[in-house]
Amino acid sequence: MRVVIADDSALLREGLAQLMTGAGVEVCAAVDSAEALAAAVAEHRPDVAVIDIRMPPTFTHEGAAAAVELKVSFPDVGILLLSQAVETHFAGQLVERHAERFGYLLKDRVIDVPTLLHALETIAAGGTVLDPDIARSLVRAHSRNNPLLSLSDREREVLGLMTEGRSNAAIAERLVVSGKTVETHISNIFAKLGLHDAPDDHRRVLAVLTALRHE
Q: Among 36, 63, 136, 180, which has the highest number of CB atoms less than 10 A from its own CB?
């Protein structure tokens, strides 16, 4: 297996390289920035790129952003985000668009070399590896980003009928409820989707667009 390592810490970078080499992994390059990572991947085309999230110049999410770009340019290269930081924006994009050959582990939870090697092998073979804390963070972030998840089952059913262009009366007939009940459901839908200051007709269109965007 061929690997490129990107970590701004020289100690961690070289330590990982030595551990992997000792375990029979070929470390093609060990770099300290997102720019150097892109160049190393283009040159060596590794099986997996092991990337820290926080790298120069701002030490916020350069590594995660670089991982998203790498997946676009080199979709066959596996990505393992190995970091102390929990990042959901770019990691969420990778899970949604490039779940194959992707992993995200917290450094503190990688307690031995076999754990790291298993993750690399799984990713190189096309699998996905997520730390449980990362998985929970991604689910919470997805819930916040998808307002439809705040709706009850009945409210989602009403919204689905709204997307079909049905009137309140038609929805009431379909669900065998009163028109007043339908109005209450629609009012709740508007509130949960954050559609407050607009005429009902306009809010109805916005609610339908939201449903279509997240279907």
A: 63
